[in-house]
Amino acid sequence: MRYFIRRALHAVFLLFGVSLLTFLFSALTPGNYFDEMRLNPQISPDTVAALRSQYQLDRPLPVRYAHWLNAVVHGQLGFSFTYNGPVAPLLWARARNTLLLTITATLLAWLVALPLGVWSAARFGRAPDRVLSWTTATLLVVPDLVLALGLLILAVRTGWFPTGGLVSVGFDELSVSHKLRDIALHMTLPVVSLVLATLPMLVRHVRASVADVLDAPFLRAAAGHGIPQRKLLYRYALRAAANPLISLFGFSVGTLLSGSLLVEVVMSWPGLGPLLLESILARDLYVVIGGVLLSMLFLVGGNLFADILLYLADPRIRTAASAK
Amino acid sequence: MQPLLRVENLVKLYAAGRSASSKDKLTALDGVSLSIPSGETLALVGESGSGKSTLALCIACLEPPTSGSVWFEGIDAAALGENQQCLLRPQIQLVFQDPASSLNPRWTALDIVSEPFLVQGRFTKPDRAVRALQLLDLVAIPRKMAARRADELSGGQKQRLAIARALALEPKLLILDEALSALDCSVQAQISNLLLDLQSSLGLTYLFITHDFAIAAHMADQIAVMYQGRIVESGPSEKILSSPNHEATRSLMAATPRFIETPGVLVHF
Amino acid sequence: MTQPRKFARWLIVLLMLHGIVAAAGFFAPYDPVEQDRERPYLPPMRVHLMDARGHLHLRPFFYPLRLRAGSFDQYEEDTATAVPLRFFERAAAYHLFGFVPSHLHLFGASGTRIYLLGTDTYGRDQLSRILYGGQVSLLAGLLGAGVTLFLGALIGMAAGYFGGWRDDLLMRIAELFLALPWLYLLFALRAFLPLAVSPLEAFLLVVIVIGMVGWARPARLVRGVVLSVKERDFVRAARGFGASDVYLLRRHILPETASVLLTQAAILVPQFVLAEMTLSFLGLGVPEPMSSWGNLLAALQQYNVLVSYWWMYLPALAIVPFFLGYLGLASALQQRTSPYKIEEKSSWSPS
């Protein structure tokens, strides 16, 4: 239990840190946002005045931060000037799509990486392993941006997959199964792009961790007991190698978020990515802050999840935590 | 005549945990007192963990003692401010146990020996090189080794280099912290003889820290035995060697295999 | 292959690649901003050795492209006119490496223009734009890596050497930066800086922003080195001669960090080039008319370009050989320092 409290506190610290950083950035920028806003013909002067008083730009920095923090905790993430409405509902809708994409991609990537890595480690140094190593090395050399754009061009020229958006026109009229199929089709390209970006590193780490474990005496003893190869690999070796892999998972949540941002923009997937980008370009301050915070929430959530997994998987952590 | 070095009731506590206010404090030195007359050698004998190295660092002004005083030529070194301590430091030099760690392996022998001059800002560059070569002569390192990197030298040569470096600033007191312990027996003999020669020719005073009674017997005028942060026995070498009182002394003597004690006759090496 | 040889091999490859980009003026047939409004979106021209009648020629040649009859965006080769490819051609003036005036180009064609990689919407030669764009992107990556390593070394040394609460504070902040996704950090930093600036200012801004994102990992690594070197006896001995902190840091501790910093450099430079490409692609980086690999790709955001003009994708592939070179270099360096590890966990992830 202590362990979780510590990790949760750590997560809160992270969120605080990010909120502070983001707020500081926005507050320290040269020029007053509301000056710029006044120049913007889309926004009425009354709104500007109201917002000014609401956000108390004349007060000292710590007071503003406290006030803003208070608002955030109450779910009030501010006001979007481009969309002319509150930020929070805008973010939730997009966040859903991003989660859909990232969770699917993560699951898929790990589902593929684990067997591939284990299979490769079992044939360490031999031909199939080397072929796989070469493939992953080649994929690693191709950056996400290049990969995503390449896939997009492929899709466009072959016409096999829709390029952009969550759903097709006329979505609402489709039957449930067709709806699912439609979404799945739209999701394919972004998911494949994300998976291809994260897969090589995952496979390499799984392979390395399992290969490390395969040398261990306890495995050879188990083999001597006549335990079949597959069971040996998955139930014994993989379990032992789980610790660094779960840490890797926690670590990779951050990279996945970055990757998904890029993929969403390139593939026109209506998630947080494109929203963040357009708000930056439009200087829509509160959307940017809210978007960054929300993504940090996912990051922290992912890390916490990894911590829980680690706790469940590794008895050493349990005993260490309870010994404290 | 006052002794060159006089340590009075030196106490050093280390905080065991990460925070400075940790409740578990490690007592490295628990009220150590000793004195060395000028030109003599005091051997400080003790097992590992008895606090010998800590004492060396405190005397050399590299660690501030928690309490107590270190009198060097009548001046309380421990009480001096940082700037004045810097002026005092050249007079007290250290030679460490492991030359692989006490010499920067990437530097050449010449650079290592002339580093003290560089740090103190003395002499011009060519002058530094000349004096450095003279120091190499003093410790019998052939001049052609001057351009070699430290990690290319043998163990004995490295330790000679460390001694040469320590002598660069013409110190009065040389503290040798287990300086011979990492060397082979034959090399030990060479270097201990070198040290004795240097002592008589340069008029040095040695504080010789070791766990080996044989070396202490060979080198020292006086012996002090240290156990758990305290001096438990001290006096002239012959007296300690012939009739040790404290059981720590006796167990240390017994632990030195080359040291055979027979009544009246000491056979060692 | 022994480690020094591997390292040398990759270094040579990288130097050659950089050399080609640095000497862009020579390798590029035309000026990157020169427009050819008559011929927008020309597909890549093919170089032939055998002509339409089946005769083999010794000198490579190409057929100029003309509009297909009845179409306004389909091109075909005009097999009536064969234009020979000339090497070491004297053409438009440029400054090699920025200051040596020259007229010499690797290849060209007199009279008409050859577009080996096609043209863009203004008729600008893509090959030239890619070469010159590489200068901007690579420079951004190198400078950005320099900024990061400098920051990281400074902070790492301060944290490791002085210890105490300074160390704790700095490492906490480093943890924060390390945990955040790099692209978000990049965006956030860029977002809050002025958007409409001159190309040079934009470039500097990009470098600074990129540089400030990645300092945490080098700082941690440097700190580790400093912590271990700090306790070495030769540092104690130097202090015994009266050496100041600055002296110790400069002459003893800093040289020990060199190998760590070098390895980090090999890992960071390609990531930072990619970061510049990403920023410029999204419109947050280097603006027109300065070309960088990123803003060359920005054209792909238009649907019609994506569908019809596939050669606009080629700038994306330009970075791949560089990634390969740097990855090889980093791997060779890492094997030198830790030869027995199968995988260096922190080695290759864009974070």
Which class best fits the helix and strand makeup of chain A?
mainly alpha
Query: Residue ranges of chain A: pLDDT <50 for 5 or more in a row?
Result: none
How are strands sequenced across the largest beta sheet of chain C?
1-2-5
Q: Kindly estimate the percentage of residues of chain A that lie in beta strands according to DSSP.
A: under 5%
Strand fraction of chain C equals: 5-15%
Helix content of chain A: over 70%
Average pLDDT for all residues of chain A: 79
In total, the number of strands of chain C is 7
Biggest sheet of chain A: strands, sense, closure? 2 strands, antiparallel
Distance between the termini of chain A: 11 Å
Features:
heterotrimer; B: 269 residues; alpha/beta; four-stranded antiparallel beta sheet; 10 helices; disordered C terminus; C: 351 residues; mainly alpha; three-stranded antiparallel beta sheet; two-stranded antiparallel sheet; 12 helices; elongated
Description:
The complex is a heterotrimer of chains A (324), B (269) and C (351). Chain A has 324 residues and is mainly α. In chain A, 80% of the residues lie in helices and 1% in strands. In chain A, strands 1-2 form a two-stranded antiparallel sheet. In chain A, a hairpin with a 4-residue loop joins β1 (79-80) and β2. The model of chain A has no long low-confidence stretch (mean pLDDT 79). With 269 residues, chain B is of the alpha/beta class. Chain B is 36% helix and 26% strand. Chain B has ten helices and twelve strands. Residues 261-269 of chain B have low confidence and may be disordered. With 351 residues, chain C is mostly helical. In chain C, α1 (3-22) packs across α3, α4 packs antiparallel against α7 and α7 (216-230) runs antiparallel to α9. Classes of the chains: A mainly alpha (324), B alpha/beta (269), C mainly alpha (351). Chains in contact: A-C, B-C. The interface between A and C is large, with 55 and 44 residues.
How is this structure best summarized?
The complex is a heterotrimer of chains A (324), B (269) and C (351). Chain A is mainly alpha-helical.
